[in-house]
Write a structure and sequence with these properties.
In chain A, 0% of the residues lie in helices and 49% in strands. With 113 residues, chain A is mostly beta strands. In chain A, strand 5 and strand 6 form a beta hairpin. Classes of the chains: A mainly beta (113), B mainly beta (117).
Chain lengths: 113, 117
């Protein structure tokens, strides 16, 4: 069974530029999560989807971050414009449901210069 | 509010010795507790979970964890450490089904485990 797929694995951009991350969850997993992991810290939830509905986006900085999960499968997380403080690893995870264990992708390491 | 504390930034242990990585939590309602491991440049891998039942939970790669409700702890243990166990370990907590935080995992800061030959 394929795991959670994320791309790109690494991204370097200049501040004020836009960037997008893509995630393909494990087949059949209705719940999808985006986390941000700063260096030396644990992941922090940005947004959670149940199918195509965002059910928890309270931690998403909505002035510059946006996400979508059209058709309830793949998801895209976008930052526009990026700031220096956005440098982090962005992790996507999926689970069969909100009360089940989450399976993480390898992450996208973003560096904003 | 939910929170998780991992009091040790790093744990050093010799190969073959038992290891313990500590975790304490705070959550309203019954806790759902998890341990994940992260290898360099890799995503987090699920090790084990506690939801209900036996306080000693067995997981992947020979790891186990002991849930202690009175001490609000969920320490990760392994009887005999391997060099390949060296990695970053995260404890996480989620509120139970009745919690308003259903589905939201709160992670600790992580503990680096270093197993020396």
């Amino acid at each position: 069974e394929a795991g959670v797929v994320q791309s790109p694995r690494y991204k370097i951009i200049e501040k004020k530029q836009p960037v997008a991350f893509w995630c393909n969850p494990i087949s059949g997993h209705n719940t999808l999560y985006w986390y941000r992991q700063n260096l030396g810290q644990g992941p922090e939830l940005l947004i959670r989807y149940e199918n195509e509905e965002a059910v928890d986006d309270s931690q998403l900085p909505k002035d510059r971050f946006s996400a979508e999960r059209l058709k309830g499968v793949d998801s895209t997380l976008k930052i526009q414009p990026a700031e220096l403080g956005d440098s982090a690893v962005y992790l996507c995870a999926s689970s069969p449901g909100p009360l089940r264990e989450q399976y993480f992708g390898p992450g996208t390491r973003l560096t904003v210069t | 509010a939910q929170s998780v504390a991992q009091p040790e930034d790093q744990v050093n242990v010799a190969e073959g010795n038992p290891l313990t990585v500590k975790c304490t939590y705070s959550v309203s309602g019954n806790p759902y507790l998890f341990w994940y491991v992260q290898y360099p440049n890799r995503g987090l891998q699920f090790l084990l979970k506690y939801i209900t039942g036996d306080n000693l939970v067995k997981g992947s790669y020979g790891f186990e964890a002991e849930f202690n409700k009175s001490q609000t702890s969920f320490h990760l243990k392994k009887p005999s450490a391997l060099v390949s166990d060296s990695a970053l370990y995260f404890c996480a907590v989620r509120g139970g089904a009745s919690s308003s935080n259903t589905g939201k995992l709160i992670f600790g800061q992580g503990t680096t485990l270093q197993v020396k030959p």
